[in-house]
Amino acid sequence: MIHMEYYLIVSTIMLFAGIFGFFTRRNTLTMLISIELILNATDINFAVFNRFLFPNGLEGHFFALFSIAISAAETAIAIAIMINIYRNIRSIQVKHLDEMKW
C-alpha cells in the first residue's frame, strides 16, 4: 500500500508546476494548461483524502469527478475565447491582448 505522503508529494509538485507555469508563460494556451495542472492537483487531494480518511465513502471521488467536469467546461470555453482572439489579432500571446481594449 502506498502511503498518503507520496500522493501529497505528487500533488504538491503538480500544484507548484502549475503556479510556476501560470506566472512565467506568456502564451494563453500554456497558461490554460497550467490551470489544468492546478485543478488536477486538487482532484488528487480529493481522492487521496477520501481514501485515507473515509475509506467507505465516495464523497471525495464525486468531488473529483465534478471538478473534472467543471474543468472540461472551462477548457472548452477558454479555447473558444482563444480562437476568437486569434481571429481578431492573429496572436494568442498575453502581451498582445491589450490591443483588444480599443
Summed up, what is this model?
The chain has 102 residues and is an all-alpha fold.
Plain-language structure description:
With 102 residues, the chain is mainly alpha-helical. It has one domain (4-101): Helix Hairpins. Helix content is 76%, strand content 0%. It is built from three helices and no strands. It has helices at 4-24, 28-53, 59-89. α1 (4-24) packs antiparallel against α2 (28-53) and α2 (28-53) packs antiparallel against α3 (59-89).
Instruction: Specify the helix fraction band.
Output: over 70%
Question: Would you give the CATH topology?
Answer: Helix Hairpins
Uncertain segments: none
The top-level CATH class is Mainly Alpha
Largest sheet: none
The count of domains is 1
Global structural class: mainly alpha
Helices and strands in order:
Blueprint: H1 4-24, H2 28-53, H3 59-89
Helix pairs in contact: 1-2, 2-3
Brief descriptors of the model:
Helix Hairpins; mainly alpha; 3 helices; 102 residues; single chain
